[in-house]
Amino acid sequence: MFDLSKRAVVLTGATGNIGPTVLRAYLEQGAHVAIPLRNEAKGAALRDSLGDLAGGPDPRVLMRAADPGDRAAMESFVEQVLRAWGRLDVAANLIGGYASADAATGDLAAYRTYWDQKVATIVTATTACLRPMRARGYGRVVNVASTAALKGEKGAAGYAMANAALIRWTESLAEETKREGITANCVLPRIIDNAENRAAMPKADPSRWATAAEIAAIIVFLSTEEASGITGTSIPIVART
Ligand SMILES: NC(=O)c1ccc[n+]([C@@H]2O[C@H](COP(=O)([O-])OP(=O)(O)OC[C@H]3O[C@@H](n4cnc5c(N)ncnc54)[C@H](OP(=O)(O)O)[C@@H]3O)[C@@H](O)[C@H]2O)c1
Q1: For residue 134, with 0-12 CB atoms within 10 Å meaning exposed, 13-18 middle and 19 or more buried, which class applies?
Q2: Any domain includes 1
Q3: Is 217 a domain residue?
Q4: Which residue has its alpha carbon closest to ligand 1 atom 33?
Q5: Which of 25, 93, 182, 219 is the Cys-Cys partner for 177 at CB 3.0 to 4.6 Å?
Q6: Domain extent for 58
Q7: What is the structure's pLDDT at 59?
Q8: Ligand 1 contacts CB of residue 5 (under 6 A)
């Protein structure tokens, strides 16, 4: 559908639930994908999950140990990507996780922990990727936040605040880079169909939830040259909820 065969993607948070589907979607459009790993065993499992697509060590997939929240590690990772492929066009960030934290308790430590997990990591990883994007005058940044960013929810104050902060940062980045060939956007899933959510909500109808493939399709589209007109947006993916 879209040609990403000349594009190199840095994909963070690829070892989570939707990571394998997003990775596969990029590879199916021809992209090269580089993945910083905190856990090499998870990386091996991710590579195995490619099965038929990779058919063994795929030169279009580069995995290296690097913590996305560590600026020096990410600078070094970006150098490795540039040495391997000579380019870096897309930063797509799936990093996240859910943590409850009440508003009424004012649990700043919990809020900060989630901010560190969600915002500090994605800001650090993305800014390391920006240097080659700015040098070439082309880039796509796609961050996964949550619809919880749009309205506070009972028991999820830290989660809502961190996701909202990520949107505001992404919008600011979009403003700063909009005349440099770079776009920056967020996608906002509500509930994703995965084993954890099925176990947590056994009475719910999972067919109403967004599938990983539905989310991957929007992420990949925002990563294409054809999406040049979209920047500073946050796209809710509520599926059938
Ligand atoms: N699941 C839902 O219903 C839902 C709803 C709305 C939004 N979202 C958002 O959608 C995104 C993808 O969801 P998912 O279910 O695939 O997430 P997930 O399974 O929880 O995956 C989390 C990913 O984030 C990485 N990560 C977590 N903490 C990190 C940290 N401190 N530093 C670096 N990496 C870290 C994990 O890496 P390791 O493997 O190294 O731990 C893993 O690759 C997330 O941002 C999530 O918040 C999910």
Answers
A1: middle
A2: no
A3: yes
A4: 68
A5: 182
A6: 8-237
A7: 86
A8: no
